[in-house]
TrEMBL record:
A Pfam family per the record: Glyco_hydro_65m
Top-level taxon: Bacteria
Name listed for the protein in its UniProt record: Glycoside hydrolase family 65 central catalytic domain-containing protein
Residue span(s) of domain Glycoside hydrolase family 65 central catalytic: 321-516
UniProt region (Disordered), positions on chain: 372-394, 512-533
SUPFAM superfamilies tied to this protein: Six-hairpin glycosidases (SSF48208)
Organism annotation: Plantactinospora siamensis
Biased composition (Basic and acidic residues): 512-522
Length: 687
């Protein structure tokens, strides 16, 4: 397998560039030119959104703040800062490298910065700043934590090694607004190239707490400052500052080089699940690699609060859905993780199990039985956190079914019996009860009335196809899982699933909802097609063909919108329309990618140029990966022998010969997937 394709280096930063994103799924950092200052988040740290007053992921003090001062002039004091020589991602190793030049008083300093959120040690962020000068000067290097930006207050500031907190340079305890969450941040530094230099510990009125080193620098020498920072929230430990010190001590014992090596090895293992597009132009492989990277860098099995539609990425220019947990992840991202990072998928789905009580309360408040998962789930409580206004929280009723299907597919993919019994079954049972209480039995069969689907048309409709198909699939999965675990289930679940109303047009295609018109507002949203893929609702070949054909013929007005745009190429490919499939991949995915770092945005900048270029948007990139892994290959996760998962002819977009993955994890065993255009079915070979 060849190396993943990293984006080209950047040598000029522009205001319209999407900020650099560095994450391991637990910690998230964003910055523009210089990684010495930026914005940070950590999974599990929440509070009331300052504007909307709902539970939200909130920024924390920046854990890798730094500065370089030459003859008394620091980079941070110069309006334009340092000149960018080069900035580049190394997707293969999960690293960002930044090269700067800072000239003052006739002395030039070349500064190279390595920034990493460690995948092997998830509470650890690490940075290495290397400086070379071309003339003798007084050089000062600092590294620490900056609490001057986010809302909150410190409950502890301790500086200097050898104190109560061992060898740490400093410890900051931070409490968020409203005292909902707290976190501990502790760091340690080491300077190479200047023997005998004594560190100075500082705490400024602006909230910056740092370690400083002063040296008389000479040309031809290299000065290297390394920083390890541990970030722990009270979601992990009730005394997060103490536990952060413990994690830092462990990291220091391992050593900086060993930590980098362990981090790189984790990424090397992840990249064995790389989706290779056989025969496709290298541009498409680069886009696929970027999507793979941004998805896998945004999730971790250690994350206590799932992940949001933007992972751990935040920037003050947009709401980023306040870090809420939404159905986008279960439907578009989890399928791509089930076979590449099953332990991480298990953790994400475990969040839903642990928040089952909130889903029950949500159902009870609307008069239903069972569990109704929120439209926007608060990352800490799991309760409804949608801001005021709009009907989605009370009418967008496919979320619970989306959760149920993700849980069931995890069980199919992994064969994890313990998870099936302890996590999947309790959730599927309650969701099945909710669906049974939500439907209405009429002369047409079973109906789900007054709902909104993916299109979010602004008003409820009856019998939305995606909602009904998802509900039927959830009922069938619950009805099958119960007996497999030796449990009895309600016979009505299967009866409802078989008789849920699916509206159709005169040609026999499934349509979006009762009284649907293709020219209605958002009528080009391919909701019915999405019920078949990625929803998985089984239909006969002719119904599938007619439904996909109707979607492809009407989809032009939808392309550029989030989520399903990335799926539309699958629909055309399954119709055998290879040229149209490639066109839809271009407009439905490639046009969402913002350069210079191949960041997948929420809305297509070419279709919606006035909207913020917010990314990486996990639903879009996860949808693309899920489409490649399952949609184009024809693979369907189900109970029974995995050899039967691939059971339909393979059709690729024009110019693509196939899809290959060197290693997936299937029922605990490594497996290889190969799908070649024109063959009767893909091959899933278990070791």
């Amino acid at each position: 397998m060849s190396e993943p394709i990293s984006p080209d280096p950047v040598r000029e930063w522009r205001p319209d560039h999407v900020p650099v994103y560095v994450s391991n799924g637990l910690i998230g950092l964003r910055f523009e030119v210089a990684p010495l200052r930026g914005v940070a988040t950590v999974n599990g740290f929440v509070g009331a959104d300052p504007r909307d007053k709902v539970e939200s992921l909130l920024p924390i003090p920046y854990p890798l703040v730094g500065d370089v001062s030459v003859d008394g002039t620091p980079i941070s004091s110069v309006p334009l800062g340092a000149l960018l020589r080069e900035q580049r991602y190394d997707f293969a190793r999960g690293e960002v490298h930044t090269a700067l030049t800072f000239t003052t008083g006739g002395v030039r300093a070349d500064i190279d910065i390595l920034t990493v959120c460690n995948k092997a040690c998830p509470t650890i962020a690490m940075q290495e700043v290397t400086v070379r000068v071309d003339g003798r000067c007084e050089l000062e290097l600092t590294a620490g934590v900056d609490a001057g930006g986010p809302l909150g207050i410190p409950f502890l500031v301790e500086l200097g090694s050898g104190g109560r907190y061992g060898s740490a340079d400093g410890v900051l305890g931070w409490r968020g607004p409203g005292d909902v969450s707290s976190c501990g941040i502790t760091w340690a530094t080491e300077l190479a190239g200047a023997e005998g230099c004594t560190p100075e510990f500082r705490h400024t009125v602006t909230g910056r707490t740092a370690t400083a080193y002063r040296v008389t620098a000479r040309p031809g020498r290299e000065y290297r400052l390394r920083q390890l920072t541990s970030v722990v929230t009270d979601a992990f430990h009730w005394e997060p500052h103490l536990h952060a010190v413990r994690m830092l001590d462990d990291a220091r014992q391992r050593g900086f080089e060993a930590l980098l090596a362990e981090h790189a090895e984790r990424w090397a293992q992840l990249w064995r699940g790389r989706i290779e597009l056989l025969g496709a132009p290298s541009r498409w492989q680069a886009l696929t690699d970027a999507a793979f990277f941004y998805l896998h860098t945004s999730v971790h099995r250690a994350s206590p609060s799932h992940t949001s539609p933007f992972g751990m990425a935040y920037w003050p220019d947009y709401h980023y859905y306040r870090g809420h947990v939404m159905w986008d992840i279960e439907t578009f991202a989890v399928p791509a993780l089930l076979l590449t990072q099953p332990d991480t998928a298990r953790s994400l789905l475990g969040y839903r199990r642990s928040r089952l009580g909130g889903a029950r309360s949500n159902a009870e408040a609307q008069g239903y039985a069972g569990a109704q998962f929120p439209w926007e789930s608060g990352p800490r409580t799991g309760q409804e956190a949608t801001p005021m206004g709009g009907e989605a929280p009370t009418t967008e009723h496919h979320v619970s079914a989306d959760v149920a299907l993700a849980l069931a597919r995890y069980v199919h993919a992994t064969g994890d019996d313990e998870f099936a019994r302890e996590a999947a079954w309790p959730v599927l049972f309650e969701i099945a009860r909710w669906v049974a209480s939500r439907v209405r039995h009429t002369g047409r069969g079973y109906e789900i009335q007054r709902v909104q689907g993916i299109a979010e048309t602004g008003g409820p409709v009856d019998n939305n196809a995606f909602v009904n198909m998802s509900a039927a699939m959830a009922l069938r999965e619950a009805a099958a899982l119960g007996p497999a675990l030796g449990l009895r289930v309600n016979d009505v679940w299967a009866r409802i699933a078989d008789n849920l109303v699916l509206p159709r047009n005169e040609d026999g295609a499934i349509i979006n909802h009762d009284d649907y018109r293709p020219d209605e507002p958002k009528g080009s949203t391919p909701e019915a097609a999405a019920g078949i893929f990625p929803g998985g609702y089984p239909v006969d070949p002719e119904t599938e063909r007619r439904t996909f054909s109707a979607a492809v013929d009407n989809v032009d007005g939808y392309l550029g919108s989030p989520m399903l745009s990335a799926m539309t190429g699958v629909y055309a490919a399954r119709l055998g329309e290879r040229d149209r499939a490639l066109e839809l991949y271009e407009r439905g995915f490639a046009e969402f990618v913002a350069q210079p770092y191949c960041v997948v945005t929420e809305y297509s900048p070419s279709v919606y140029p006035d909207l913020p270029r917010a990314g990486p948007f996990i639903a879009n990139l996860g949808g693309f990966l899920t489409g490649c892994l399952y949609g184009l290959t024809g693979m369907t996760l189900r109970e029974g022998d995995p050899a039967g998962w691939c059971d339909r002819p393979v059709t690729m977009p024009q110019g693509w010969d196939g899809v290959h993955v060197e290693r997936l994890w299937v029922r605990g065993r490594p497996a290889t997937l190969t799908a070649v255009h024109g063959e009767d079915r893909a091959r899933l070979d278990l070791a």
